[in-house]
Specification:
Helices cover 66% and strands 4% of the residues. It is mostly helical. Among the domains are: 20-164, Butyryl-CoA Dehydrogenase, subunit A, domain 3 (Up-down Bundle), CATH 1.20.140.70; 186-220. Strands 3-5-4 form a three-stranded mixed beta sheet, with helices on both faces. A two-stranded antiparallel sheet has the order 1-2. Strand 1 and strand 2 (188-191) form a beta hairpin.
Length: 593
């Protein structure tokens, strides 16, 4: 591996938008959709005949194949674009693939309607036909989804309009978030991504300056950012109401493959744990030698100089792989492979979006990771997090498409489990002088994944409620965000130094398809802690864990949890994870006496 922070190599997916393979796959996408249309035309009349199972199986496989082409092509175009939001060709290709894929959305609606109209026959066939037996959950979910869609011509219109409505607002956010900057010093400007990377700096004055510069930068684009957020949420509210969803939260719970009971148990558990985290933040303020933490102190190292030696890319990549090695050598081998092949774009630069994500290419059977590596231990954990997503894809890459589509709750379980593996191995291997710093870092991350996520959950509930009535100006969005942060952090943070523009920072709010993409992180965090605690001394656990990942697309999150021995619908289960975090906080406190 080079010591240089890498950019990703997409050539094994497609060499470029002009290569023969890319154009060929565009043609095959169109062809597969036409084949699917023909099959769907004849499918209703074949349910009463002896060949019903053959017809259904052929339709499912054609639907899967068309989806693979659509996702492979769109993931490639998106990957090129988010790495450089000034790439006009990539933006044009995104629109082109969306246009090519539109009939697939319409045909999916028609397919669901046919399945729902023939529900008894479909479920009976799935029970007796060996080819379709693995698809029982998929077919049942497709039938259930049919109750939450408009007629096919209206769905076709909604999907077509989304390209110049909801999705266009999303791309506006990406473009602004990747280019907005502020003056830093006499040498020039820093983008908001670069400014946010300074939250880990040992020097509080630098953290404060970065925070103030970041807020000033967001202020300059608050009007178009607010327009983008209003556009995304307004589109989603209007269309999803027509689809029959009672609320955005009902849709989110369905997408997460959990029940409202489970979500309520999770949220209540976090709410009840707020005093614990506030106690931690007050303790952190003492460790930092300040009266009270500001928002820009949340990620601060607790001991000045303790983490002053920056991580190089090589050191970070090696550390993640070595930690994986102690859990599962196969996972470690995979990590080393993708790092050596430059499947990671870790360089921080202008015109690249902030944050981190993992995408996959079903035809290439490969994944790619985007992050913004800044040399902190937090960025090491981010690499572990995204590698956990990539490992999840590696486990399921050879499964049929319908059996590999997992909910966000389980996606975040895989990534946060990988983080847990790296953290636990790092603590185990660290010298005594460094262990408390690592433990504090873990609690800090838990605070983000639970307390800050809860503030985002509160904010989004209020956002949807108000957006139903009217558009919300930027100043009001800032006030709503501050209220949500005060409600969760309470008196543990300086109320005058919170972050009113977190609604602009987090891209998760800017999706028409995924409301409430916040609590899945809390679900994944606490679920991962319980999984790790159960399996850390069991040599057979890595194999069992791979088996769980393989099943994530074929059952609900609650069913998968039961297979692991957990009932996630109870607060008792979620408190197990909180108890482990409480033990870590107590360990920090003991170190101070």
């Amino acid at each position: 591996m080079s010591s240089k922070i890498p950019k990703w190599d997409l050539s094994s997916v497609y060499m470029s938008f002009d290569c023969a393979e890319y154009h060929n796959d565009c043609g095959l996408l169109k062809k597969r959709i036409t084949e699917l249309e023909t099959l769907l035309d004849g499918l209703p009349g074949r349910f009463s005949g002896d060949l019903a199972a053959d017809a259904l199986y052929e339709t499912v496989k054609t639907w899967e194949n068309a989806g693979d082409y659509a996702v492979n092509l769109s993931a490639y175009a998106e990957a090129v674009y988010i790495a450089n939001t000034e790439d006009e060709r990539a933006r044009a290709e995104i629109n082109k693939i969306e246009t090519l894929s539109l009939p697939l959305g319409k045909n999916t609606v028609i397919f669901r309607d046919i399945l729902a109209a023939n529900k008894e026959q479909v479920l009976k066939i799935a029970l007796i036909d060996k080819r379709l037996e693995p698809y029982k959950y998929f077919l049942s979910e497709m039938i259930e989804k049919a109750a939450f869609q408009m007629e096919s011509r209206l769905e076709d219109l909604a999907n077509d309009l989304c390209r110049s409505a909801g999705d266009a607002w999303t791309r506006l956010h990406e473009a602004l978030a990747s280019t907005t900057s502020a003056q830093w010093d006499e040498n020039g400007e820093k983008t908001v991504t670069e400014l946010r990377s300074l939250v880990n700096n040992n020097d509080r004055d630098i953290r404060r300056r970065a925070y103030e510069a970041e807020l000033a930068a967001w202020k300059t684009v608050e009007i178009p950012m607010a327009a983008a957020l209003n556009g995304v949420k307004g589109y989603a509210i209007t269309v999803d109401k027509r689809r029959g969803w009672k609320s955005p939260l009902q849709k989110s719970v369905f997408q997460s493959r959990i029940s409202e009971k489970t979500l309520n148990a999770l949220i209540s558990t976090i709410e009840n744990a707020l005093p614990l985290f506030r106690r931690y933040l007050k303790m952190k303020a003492k460790l930092l030698g300040i009266e009270k933490c500001a928002f820009f102190d949340l990620f601060a190292p607790v001991k000045t100089g303790a983490n002053s030696e920056a991580w190089t890319w090589d050191k970070a990549a090696s550390a993640v792989a070595e930690c994986f090695e102690q859990f599962d050598p196969e996972m470690a081998f995979f990590a080393r492979k993708i790092y050596s092949l430059n499947w990671v774009d870790a360089e921080m630069r202008k015109h690249k979006i902030g944050g981190a994500y993992c995408t996959d290419f079903p035809l290439a059977k490969e994944a790619r990771i985007l992050c913004n590596f800044n040399g902190s231990f937090d960025s090491v954990l981010t690499l572990a997090h995204e590698t956990g997503h990539a490992w999840h894809h590696e486990i399921i890459k050879n499964l049929p498409r319908a059996l590999s589509q997992y909910p966000m709750t389980l996606a975040e379980t895989a990534s946060l489990f990988a983080e847990t593996v790296v953290f636990e191995a790092s603590v185990k291997n660290a010298p005594p002088s460094e262990k408390i710093n690592l433990i504090e870092g873990s609690v800090k991350d838990s605070c983000q994944t639970l307390v800050d996520i809860l503030s985002r959950y509160y904010f989004e509930k209020e956002l949807f409620s108000r957006r139903e009535e009217q558009e919300i100006p930027a100043q009001e969005l800032c006030e709503m965000m501050l209220d949500a942060q005060k409600r969760t952090y309470g008196d543990a943070l300086d109320g005058e130094k919170l972050h009113p523009y977190m609604w602009a920072v987090k891209i998760h709010y800017y999706s028409t398809a995924l409301p409430f993409y916040n609590y899945p992180y809390a679900f994944g965090h606490l679920f991962a802690l319980s999984l790790y605690t159960q399996g850390k001394n069991d040599t057979s656990f890595p194999k069992m864990y791979r088996g769980l990942l393989e099943m994530t697309g074929a059952c609900s999150a609650e069913e998968l949890a039961l297979k692991a021995g957990f009932d996630v619908s109870t607060e008792k289960f979620w408190r197990q994870g909180i108890d482990l975090i409480a033990e870590r906080i107590a360990e920090i406190e003991r170190s101070l006496t």
